[in-house]
Amino acid sequence: MSTVLAPRRLPGLRVDVAAQPAVEALPRMDIAVFVGFASTGPLHLPVAIESATQYAEVFGPDAPLAWDVGRGERVYAHLGAAVRAFFSNGGRRCWVIRVARIDAAVANRFGIPGVLEVGPGYEAHAAMAGARCEGSWSDTLRVWSALSKQSIGVDTMTPIASPAAPPPGERYQLRTRARLQPGDLLEFGDAESISAYAVVDAVSTVQSGAEGAYVVDLTVCAAFERLGAGSPPSWPLPAPSAVAEVPGFGRVAASFGPSPDAGRGTGRLKFDQPMPPTLAAGAWARWWDGGETVWLRMDSIERRLAAGGSPPTSDVSTIDASADGPAWRDLGASLQIPLESIQQASVLTLDLRVADAAERAFRLSGVGLTRQHPAAWWNQRTDAEHYKAGARASEGPRFPLAAEHGAPHAWIPLGVEPLFGAAAAPLPQQASALERDGLARFDRELFLDPELAATGAGSLLEHADNIRFLRASPREQLQGIHGALSVGRGGLFNEATLLVIPDAVHAGWEKRPAVAADRLAAEVLTRAPKAPARPAHWSRHRGACVQPSVPPKEAEPADAAPAVDAFEPDFGVFLDCRTRKLAAPTLFGPAAPVSSGGYRLHWTSSEPDATYVLHEARRADFKDAREVYRERGLEYVVALQREGVYYYQVTAELGDERSEGSLPIAVIVREDDWFALPTNEFADAGEPGLLAVHRAALRLAAASGELLVVLALPRHYRAAEAARYADRLRIVQAPSASDPDALSHGERRALSYGALYHPWIASGARVSGGADAIRIVPPDGFAAGVLALRASARGAWIAPANETFKDAVALTPPIQEAEWQALQDAQINIVRQDPRGFLAMSADTLAHAEDVDLRPINVRRLLILLRRLAVRRGISYVFEPNGPQLRRAVQRGFTLLLTDLFRRGAFAGPTVAESFRVVADDTINTPRDNDAGRFIVELRVAPSVPMRFLSILLAQTGERLTVAEEL
Question: What pTM, to 2 d.p., does this model score?
Answer without folding.
Answer: 0.84
